[in-house]
Each structure stands twice: as C-alpha cells, then as structure tokens.
Amino acid sequence: MAPAALSEGQPATDFTLPDADGTPVTLSALRGGWVVVYFYPKDDTPGCTAESCAFRDSYEDFVEAGATVIGISSDSPESHKAFAAKHNLPFTLLSDTGGSLRKEWGIGKTLGVIPGRVTFVIDPDGVVRKRFSSQFKAAAHQAEALATITGSGATSSS
C-alpha cells in the first residue's frame, strides 16, 4: 500500500539526497529557517524551466524571507548541474533517482505518466505549512510559496 500523501500540518519526513555536485543534502540540517521544496518532472522541459526560472527570479525575496529553495526531480546530478548552469539557477537541485522520496511524500503522476509537480513550504520547525499541486500552472508555485512564507496576499487552494 502506498503511503499517505504528506499534507499541511504534518512534520516533513527527513531525507538525504545528492545535489548537483553529488554532495548529500539533508532536510533536517535546514531546520530553523523556512524551506521550499518543489518537485518537478524533468530538467530542461518547458514547464519545468518556467517553474525553476520563476523561483530564480524571486530568489532574493526568498533569501530575504529567510527561506532555502530546493528543487527535486529524478534527473541525475550531472543533468541538474547542466540545467542550473544553463538557466543561472542560484538554489540547490537534488536528485531523487528512482523517485523514492517522491513516493514517500505521496506525489503521484499526472495522467499516470508525468511525475507530479508539487511544492511544499516547510516552516522553521519542520512542519508543512503549504502543499501546492499544479502540473499546468508551473510558474504559480513560486508565488504560492512566497505568499505562504511572507503572509502576503491570498493564495489559491491546491
């Protein structure tokens, strides 16, 4: 049986995944500040590029709000390195090769084929404060995450 989806109000399950240089990154090591974890289907595809560039373009706003931004897909560290360099992405991309974290956090597939596009906003205590899922509104993930952290503006329901 598949685990239940990680939802708002629950503690985020800890993980350790490799970054673009192969260096392990552990979620619990980031406690004490906001963390935005966005799962996206694939490096260098139109929607994923738009989503990642939206986070890039608002990166300073996240930093000013005390947040760390992390993108996760099943692509390899080498793919992430090329994707980040091509689009000047200033934040960490992690490789969930095989999709085990995606499964553990309950992120399904769209149309049974495309890995889900889901963003989690995790508070300084490690609790999920927002889960936003939208495969087709890729650039909206950044706005939803920033509004959750800063408390500004109304956000749409997921």
Question: What structural keywords apply?
Answer:
158 residues, alpha/beta, Glutaredoxin, five-stranded mixed sheet, two-stranded antiparallel sheet, 5 helices, 9 strands, disordered C terminus
Characterization of the model:
With 158 residues, the protein is an alpha/beta fold. The chain has a single domain (16-150), classed as Glutaredoxin, CATH 3.40.30.10. Helix content is 28%, strand content 24%. The chain has helices at residues 46-57, 59-64, 77-87, 100-104, 140-150; strands spanning 16-18, 24-26, 34-39, 67-73, 92-95, 109-110, 114-115, 118-122, 128-133. The strands form three sheets. It has a five-stranded mixed beta sheet with strand order 5-4-3-8-9. It is globular, with a radius of gyration of 14 Å. Residues 153-158 have low confidence and may be disordered.
Number of strands: 9
* CATH superfamily grouping: Glutaredoxin
What is the mean pLDDT? 88
Query: What is the architecture at the second tier of CATH?
Result: 3-Layer(aba) Sandwich
Order of strands, widest sheet: 5-4-3-8-9
- Cα end-to-end separation: 24 Å
Number of helices: 5
Order of helices and strands: EEEHHEHEHEEEEH
Here the CATH topology equals Glutaredoxin
The CATH class is Alpha Beta
Uncertain ranges: 153-158
Class by SSE composition: alpha/beta
